[in-house]
Amino acid sequence: MKEDDLMNTVGLMIPTKEHEHRRVLRPCDIASMKHKEQLYLCHGYGEICGFSDEDYRASGAHIDDPKEVMRKQIICDPKIGDASYLQDLADGTILFGWVHPAETKERAELLMRKKMNAFAWENMYEEGRAVFYKNSELAGKAAVLHAFQLYGTLPQGKKVAILGNGNTAKGAMQILYQLGAYVDVYPRKAEQAFLHHFQEYDVIINCILWDVERSDHILYLSDLKKMKPHAMIIDVSCDAHCAIESSQPTTFTHPVYEIDGILHYAVDHTPSLFHRSFLEDCGPICAHYLDILIADGNDPVLQEANILKDGVFTNNDIFVYLQMLENNNILFKNKMAEND
């Protein structure tokens, strides 16, 4: 038996999520891999980033039709959790990307029913830092740039509050400082301080990853009427009806909505706007971990990120989060109905 026969094959799918342009490997990343011959890419995979099929073939990868690529043992897609083809994958397929199984009940049930295995990028940490931290920074930067375009004004001179002080907040802060905004940052422990001053801000940016055990909100629906007229909320975290009760994820097709005169922006994959930057930052990282997954997946970072094993979730917080989202959604709809 050949050594290759003992290794996993990897299919790199073109994301099906609306306006998702991120790709995971450049030809130069593939050329650096030890097991490049195990990679299969869809026709046209890199065109959005300026790479032809021939570029990828020359690097050592295979090019094939999507139906064939989907049959590989590992499927890699940045937004794999949102993929429309999940139900068409073979039972037991290994998923590698942002899975976010708790985003919807239907997604979690599908992953369990098909006995999927998943190595979730959102759970990958190395020496205490998120492996894909640069994507989080990019999310903050991209959200600010896109939202202010839709707001119709530059950040210069605007008073902005940022909730959170992680990588996403760092990215938002960098762009805002560069564009001349006045910025106040409120870490998790400073929520009360923010609540004493939230009426002063032109723009509020939420970058807090919500604690699944919390049943409250930082900004309630009723708080919108206390904000500056025509202010804007940018919810980069995009946890529906969590930190910001009135927030729910939006799309690039319909990126904003208004409640009580407050513009809300909550696109949940803003780094797609700068897909080439993502690829430059994260291509080498993906190449490194795909090489390991192809061989045996024996790596502490990957093992911690192995959130789903043969359809069984390794952490029950997923079901707690799903219940919280359902409860928050019902409460929000009831409040909106009362306002009408």
From TrEMBL:
The record's listing under PANTHER family reads: ALANINE DEHYDROGENASE
Name the record gives this protein: N5-(Carboxyethyl)ornithine synthase
Instruction: Name any GO cellular component annotation.
Output: plasma membrane
Q: Where is the Alanine dehydrogenase/pyridine nucleotide transhydrogenase NAD(H)-binding domain?
A: 142-266
Cleavable signal peptide: none
Q: Which residues form the Alanine dehydrogenase/pyridine nucleotide transhydrogenase N-terminal domain?
A: 11-139
Segments traversing the membrane: none
Tell me the superkingdom of the source: Bacteria
Annotated keywords: Oxidoreductase
The GO molecular function terms of this record are: alanine dehydrogenase activity; N5-(carboxyethyl)ornithine synthase activity
What species was this sequence derived from?
Longicatena caecimuris
GO aspect biological process, one term? alanine catabolic process
Gene3D superfamilies per record? NAD(P)-binding Rossmann-like Domain
